[in-house]
Amino acid sequence: MGPGTHNEDLLSYEERRAQGGAAVVITQANAVNAQVGDFFVGKEASSGKYDQLANRIHAHGALSFVQINHPGRQAHLGPNAFNEVLYSSSAVPQREYGAQVRVPRSLSHEEILQVINDFATAAEQIANTAVDGIEIHFAHGNLVQQFLSPDLNQREDQWGGDAAGRNRLAIEILREIRKRIGKRLIVGARVNLELAPQEDAQSELTDQILTIIDTGLLDYVSVSGGNFSSGWGVATNLPDASFPPALWRNAARKLKQGQTRIPIFLAGRVLTPELANRLISEGYCDVVTMARELVADPDLPNKARRGQDKEIRPCVGIQSGCWQRVADGKPIHCAFNPVAGREADERDNAAAPIERALSVAVIGAGPAGLEAARSAALFGHKVTLYDRRHALGGQLTLIENVPHRQDLRKIIGWFERELKTSGVILRLGTDIDVKTLISQQYDAVLVATGGLESFRPDWQGVFDGQILTVNEALTQRLPATQNVLIYDEWGGRAALSAAEYLIAHGNKVTFITSLTYAGEGLNNTVRLPAVSRLARSGVAFLAEHQLQADNGQLRLRNSLSYQLTMLPAADVLVTSLIPTGNNALYEALLDAGVTTQIIGDARSPRGITEATREGYLAARALGRTPVVARSDLNILVV
Could you tell me one molecular function GO term of this UniProt entry (predicted)? Predict the structure, then answer.
């Protein structure tokens, strides 16, 4: 959910996953030492937060587990950290993307004993609450994995040197925990097997985890991957839609086939109940864990039990509402679930029935309009949805054909079914105007007409080839083998998607951006995989350069040296400039005295997460007394 404590927002979020049918709800990582984490076990236990959490989860028939962790060299040090020194198994430097190199200090023997005590004390504190289990973090580049790893542990004492030495910290933590709490809690561990790129190192890590399992101290092991020590580590830890579903399945099966003592859990893009059942039946794991899938639809387990798989809102892996926000220190949301992370606000402000049903027109069937129409109908209003295109989705229909973005088709299909079920009247292929809207006598009009791509007409006469916007490039099949320049000032996903689309259709692409690097506005879990794929496909990247008309020619201006150079020869120039809101209809409706509201990119170009949230809030406000949502803009009530 982001940094902080188990406040009402987080408690409501976790309770909602239990209400939706999850068998076990596991918290985010809670620190065993107050100096190295946002959530400190001692504070959460003594304040009664764990009891509140467990009791609310138990009310829905689920178990409550707390994940405990020490990040070691990955710590984000707070104001109480002594001297702000990081420590690890060894002094191996790390650089988080865009940050300075951080060199940790190697822990002394006495400090290692303190770490063991910290974990055991945390387990003891949790055992004195209503919580059912703990999951100890041995993965994701955190401190215990820094000891397990043959790459990071360079010690020659009893805490390193060979596999037995590298395993020692994990085993001693488990022994001390069991010594103090016995069987009062279920004790599991989150592990990585894919830390090292070499196959023999992976096999060695597998053998190390099997040795830990063989101690009999664990009740289960949960398999994941990636780390938080580099941009690529985060990208593999939180894989976007370009990664295959269940990408750690083979790692999990290695552990399942190597022992029969405990169940093996599997994490990582287990997207559907059908896939979950197949992974279990084919012997990859015994239990699946889901995170982002239940952010998108907390009712996934219950819907699966009822055979309602088609009603499940899919996670489409675009990362903008979930990880991008968490990486920025904000609470988790979802691009297509507008109440994710806001369950307390939803409970407080949406439970009461509407005061009166309205006749509502929604103009535009992009993300904001789709959510506004769906939610307004579910709240009890009569809704008509207009779009001049002949298909739902707005911009989504353009990018669903881009490589690695085909999962967007699933969300469009889900909206289509939702609109049909909720009785929304569709008027596609209709270019609606003010006069027609007035004649229909709607009680309210929600304008979701999206954004407008910017264009530089002064470039037309100074570039010999064809100039297209990104949207035009995605809708026009260019002849193969053309040389294409992509120029990006926006820094979002659009230009990278255009590049992938054009490469897939046989064109040669050079990517130029005025920004510091390509995709600067994206988080690394999306940007790095996309840029890597493009680089492997032969795309040349040129950053810190601006396009500029100069003496009848289009030239490149270096943003650092201001030097002008010739533009590379090309047949086509594709531009991704900063868009503007398409608010002409909204302004015309206001001038005509129509009760209206503007939402999504039409209001101000941002992203899908903001668009769907505004669509939802606009729908929720219809026919109600005005309320202000937590951490949201006040929405006009009609």
Answer: oxidoreductase activity
Confidence of residue 102 (pLDDT cuts 50, 70, 90): confident
Q: 171 φ, ψ to 5°?
A: -70, -40
Q: What is the C-alpha to C-alpha distance for residues 201 and 149, in angstroms, rounded to an integer?
A: 9
Compute the C-alpha angle 413/419/424, nearest 5°. 150
pLDDT band at 632; cut points 50, 70, 90: very low
For 502, the enclosing helix (H) or strand (E) is helix 493-504
Question: From CA 202, how far away is CA 149, in angstroms rounded?
Answer: 10
End-to-end, the C-alpha distance of the chain in Å comes to: 33
Q: One-letter amino acid identity for 138?
A: F
- Determine the angle formed by the axes of helices 493-504 and 524-536, rounding to 10 degrees: 30
Q: Are 636 and 595 in contact (CB under 8 A)?
A: no
Could you report the per-residue pLDDT of 393-407, keeping only the tens digit for each?
998 998 888 999 999
DSSP state of 336: S
456 vs 209, 461, 576, 583, CA distance in Å?
Answer: 59, 10, 11, 20
Within 360-451, where are the H helices? 367-378, 396-399, 408-422, 434-439
Band of pLDDT at residue 204, cut at 50, 70 and 90: confident
- Fold that domain 352-452+583-621 belongs to in CATH: Rossmann fold (3.40.50)
Dihedral sign, Cα of residue 259, residue 260, residue 263, residue 269? positive
10 Å CB burial of residue 111 (0-12, 13-18, 19+) is exposed
Tell me, which fold does domain 457-578 have in CATH?
FAD/NAD(P)-binding domain (3.50.50)
**How much is the pLDDT for 480?**
86
Q: How far is CA 28 from the centre of its chain?
A: 15
3-state helix, strand, coil in the chain (%, to 5): 40, 15, 45
Helix (H, G, I), strand (E, B) or coil at 105: strand
Q: Does domain 8-317 have CATH number 3.20.20.70?
A: yes
At residue 127's C-alpha, the angle toward residues 122 and 131, to 5°, is: 105
Q: Is the pLDDT of residue 137 over 90?
A: yes
Block residue for tokens 């259709």? 505
